[in-house]
Amino acid sequence: MNELGRLEDLPQDYRDALKAQNLVPLWPSLRAVLPPGKPRPNTRATAWSYQALRPLLMQAGTLTPIEKAERRVLVLANPGHGLEKMQASAAIYLGMQLLLPGEWAPSHRHTPNAVRMIVEGEGAYTTVDGEKCPMSRGDLILTPTGLWHEHGHDGSEPVVWLDVLDLPLVHYMEASYHVDGPRQTVQPGSGDRTHARGGLLPTPVFERARKAYPMLRYPWVEARAALLALAEDPAALECVQLTYTNPATGGDAENILGFYALMLRPGQTLNLPARSPASVFHVIEGGAQVRVEDQRFDLAEADTCCAPGYTPITLVNASATAPAFVFIADESPLHRKLGVYETR
Ligand code: GTQ
User: Ligand 1 pocket, 150 CB below 6 A?
Assistant: First the structure.
């Protein structure tokens, strides 16, 4: 490959003349924006231990009242991007949110899409677009772009969940903003129950406007049972993985990030090919070893890690007796829509 000219090779008066006209020569920076063969991601394989972060999150509960935080979140930030950027990857934001008994996180809506994966505690709920979504461990709750959402807690123990948003991308696009609103009125109807049987959808005979997002809550009991059923037949199926989908369209549950539940059989090693999107792994049940680049993370329950794109990933369930269940988020829908998705 050709050595390209450097900025320093150009006379200072020429560089000054360019700068005065808001002009930049491409060639000194060409390789940085179009590196050979594959991208040079800032995203670094990084893991966050729940055991290590939990006491700090609980401390936030005493240091900062909910009224002063609105959302009491510790962000899982990737050092490769700089912690202040609050990015796990180019498009993925991760946060651990704490809600204490009796607290209320007021209603708002925003352009970034969010989901919550419930990590611990009972009795909290999110109201999304007028639908009250109770939170239990392993449940996935969507708050797609533009929908009102607020969090409440009628229980007696702290509730923690993992927020996954496409905030870094939407912010990069200069399209990120929020609007505050009044407490929502809860409307009858629950999408998770009316859409719980795959292949059977409510018939919209008298409905005027169909909801773009008919299902907002994906209970873990349903996802877990579906994974166990998938693992049984065929018994040789290598990748026991489900995609969280919009039941009305069959497409991804949200527009930008993809969400999946994976079961690793006892003792299973799963080699995933290098694919362009970055991804996140969060252990719902059991333990999983994640090998990516020169890193090896031994994730216990509630631990989370992220991996850059364009690199193979190996997942191992070290237990010889128990399956492991892993929640995955990735940038696949975004890459597919943009036409840059690839597998190597
Ligand atoms: O719960 O609405 O982690 O608006 C970041 C932004 C959570 C939320 C986050 C948010 C929320």
Answer: no
For residue 118, what pLDDT is reported? 98
Sheet holding 178-180, edge to edge: 131-134, 124-128, 149-153, 104-110, 178-180
Ligand 1 and 123: CB distance under 6 A: no
Give the range of the structural domain holding residue 321, as residue numbers without chain letter. Answer: 40-187+215-338
> Does 197 reside within a domain?
no
Does some domain include residue 169? yes
Q: What is the radius of gyration, based on Cα positions, of the chain?
A: 22
* Residue 69 in contact with ligand 1 by CB distance below 6 A: no
CATH number of the domain to which 98 belongs: 2.60.120.10
- E-assigned strand segments in 182-303: 217-218, 240-243, 258-264, 269-272, 279-285, 288-292, 295-299
- Residue 127 Cβ contacting ligand 1 at under 6 Å: no
pLDDT digits (tens, 9 = 90+) for 147-202: 999 999 999 999 999 999 999 999 999 999 999 999 999 998 889 999 988 899 99
Query: What ligand 1 atom has the least distance to the C-alpha of 178?
Result: 4
Report how many domains make up the chain. 1
In a domain, 223, yes or no: yes
Q: Tell me if 113 CB under 6 Å of ligand 1.
A: no
Please state the atom number of ligand 1 nearest to the C-alpha of residue 151: 1
d(CA 153, ligand 1 centre) in Å: 16
